[in-house]
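Bumping with the actual sequence this time:
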Amino acid sequence: MAYHHGNLRKALLERAAEVIAESGIEALSLRALARDLGVSHAAPRAHFADRQALLGELAKEGFRLCVDAMRAGADAAGPDPVARYRALGRSYVQFALDQPSYFRAISHPDVMSHADRDVLAAHRAWVETLRDGVEAARAAGWHPEVDVDTLLAFSCAGAIGTAQLLTDSPIAFDFDDLDAVADAVLDLVVHRSRTTALPAPDDARATEDERKVS
């Protein structure tokens, strides 16, 4: 991939995304990007002080794209809060499958451990999108007996774990249809018909009375 003219910053980000998708985040270096683009070794540092700064920019863009994809998925799911929350998780998994380089950038521990203010703000927007969704789903009857933080951790563990599994090791598990697996897992994690919601006290008494009568 030779670079001739125009926006070197954009070219660096695009090539970095390609490298991550092809070889993983550990293969990324400014020197290698400069070589790939045919510019001097010093040229990338005019735009990114170091590899971490480049990863931070990728992560910021990744969070933005991910939130956009999740919100679009929720809107497509219709007005039901539980369906919308399921769609947030399903869209996150789809984002990982469609944009593996950005997904790796937003989920790699080295990126968040050195995140600057802009990356942290982008991450907060992603978390708040999920929190708003889980609060609405809970209010609509999805596990109302469980606190919001626990529900958020439970559902994120399912979605993030599925995304990592399907992007990093689908062959090892012999998954033929990644979309079908993602759909099935999200149905298990977030689905109106799968809830441990306890009956209200009056309902519980009514059920007990029915048993005695029968």
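The tokens above came from a reply further down the thread. Residues 1-48 form a domain with the Arc Repressor Mutant, subunit A fold (CATH 1.10.10.60).
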